[in-house]
Specification:
The protein is an alpha/beta fold. Helix content is about 50%, strand content about 10%. The longest helix has 25 residues. This is Integral membrane protein.
Length: about 425
Amino acid sequence: MSPYVRFTIITASFIGLILIYTIRSAALNDPTSLFFNPQKGYALRYSTIRHQQAEAFISSYNSTLMPKAVKAGQRTNKLCIGIPSIGRRGAQYMRETVGSLLEGLTPDERSEIYLMVFIPHADPAVHSAYSEEWLHTITDHVLTYDFEDHEKMQHIRDMEDEGGQFEEKGLYDYSYLLSKCMEQHTPYIAIFEDDTLAMDGWYHRTVAAIRDAEHQSRVRKAKNFLYLRLFYTEEYLGWNSEDWKTYLYHSMCVAAVLGAILFLLRVSKPAITLSRTVGTIRAIVATYSLLAVFILVFFALGRLTVLPSPNGVHEMSRFGCCSQAFVFPRQKAIELVDYFEKSRIGFVDVLIEKFADERRELRFALTPSVVQHVGKKSSKLDIDGSIYKEKIWSFGFEAYDWKRLRSEHEDTVKMKTGSD
């Protein structure tokens, strides 16, 4: 083996080992990586702290210290939040969902929010939290079905019966909640599922993200965007098979660049470059073999590790999952309700994406997610009545540092106060 070949192999191997060792630790939390470690990736880090903060807030809530939304006519609310919550067997997360949305808010921030919890049952008493005082005290409104029309109430009961159409009931509930939020005339409406956890400072980040999404919409000459996604799972943002041609093209480009470099070396310095000997051929084969290894390692490390999404607001028209937390402009919410009423049956997240595809709507996501899905596994029912098995988890959410978030929130409030 020639000295050149030996030097190339040793140098490339040394550099490769250092890179793999350095990046592999980050890839352990990357669900798109072959090195992904579920025990580390699904570990409760920031969620544990935020849960404690939310629970402490609910337990010690004092309405004199944290006002509700200011009534219409006194101040314009910026955001109506709707939380649909069905009574379930087993674990209930709605308490910490509400607590995490409110904990840490300043009085001014709280006064800009109209918080509505929806109990979508013909008999709301079947929900364990409905009879608890904190729910009615801490929210602006506890919404229930109060139709005087007997046929409408009977339709609600029919959908609730065992074997009823979950796809119809879920869509019906979502539409009803959106409609009630629209009555508050807030420019934006946010719908959070009742098994989510919001980070400290979620509100000021969301307000800033809305402004950014509005700006990007104007740049694209669109009237407005369809939604701002506050939660998504990174699991579906890996190396997607439908893009294999793109990956192959870029890999070939890298190989072509390397070939061009070798060719230029031979042309520019023929005196010190090996001629067409067995040693030269071996050197080229060794170089390209190492390049192939590097390309494979690049893909094995995972897309989120080597090509992470930038922080902030960015367009996400594909692979966004799921419906845990959306912010809709009011006008788009009106259009969605009309679309849902015409569809009548279907899963909310699927129909929203279908609506967006048909009308080429702009869809944005906020990175990192400001919301976590507490239950990990979806609590929705499949067509056959079974629980969805896939895990719905924001890996970026768990990387938050609660002290930095609190400091960021305080600094933001100071800047806003100083500018007012």
